[in-house]
Amino acid sequence: MAGTRNWITGATLVLGCYYLGTWLSSSTGLPLPGALTGLLILLAVLFIVPTAEPLVARAASPLLRHMSVLFVPAVLGVSAYWSEIAQNGWAIGIAIIITTCISLGISAKIAEKLLSSRHAHLSQVPAKKDAAEQVTEQREVKKGSDND
After folding, report:
1. Using N-to-C axis directions, what is the helix angle for 34-48 and 2-28, rounded to 10°?
2. Residues 44, 93: contact at Cβ < 8 Å?
3. Distances, alpha carbon 61 to alpha carbons 1, 47, 106, 112, 115, in Å
4. pLDDT tens column, 105-122
5. For labelling, which of 30, 114, 130, 132 has a CA lying 20 to 30 Å from the CA of 37?
């Protein structure tokens, strides 16, 4: 019973964010599609309420498991525009290559920045002493307290 309730809660959250994004895009004239706006809203909700992540994962997993079936209508729709695609094939190919290179470059820069900041943080943390150094230090502290 709790599993079904969790699934319904997660599905309601996903669909609510989708419809809220669609409504926001259409009512405010945002230059983003409603589905993308809803996805950004869902991302914000997951950052604000991290306990919602298992609920969303439970509701989204069946869709993700069968995602290939969901792409069949899009692939069939492309075949309706095959003549336009063939006429603009070079432009489409160049656009795909350029945008892929740009997105990979941006992703690499972000990853490099994150990893370098992590490395800098880890280098500031003092290294742990090995067991021999700790024993020697404890003996010195004990000798010092015996002399007092």
Report:
1. 130
2. no
3. 18, 19, 29, 31, 30
4. 999 999 998 888 776 666
5. 114
Count Cβ neighbours within 10 Å for each residue of 56-71 and write b for 16 or more, e otherwise. Answer: bebbeeeeeeeeeeee
Q: What is the pTM of this model?
A: 0.54
Give the C-alpha separation, 50 to 3, whole Å.
Answer: 18
Distance of CA 92 to the CA centre of its chain: 27
- Total residues found in the chain within this entry: 148
DSSP state of 49: -
Residue with tokens 């190919």: 93
Of the pLDDT bands very low, low, confident and very high (cuts 50, 70, 90), residue 1 is: confident
Angle CA 73–79–82, to nearest 5: 150
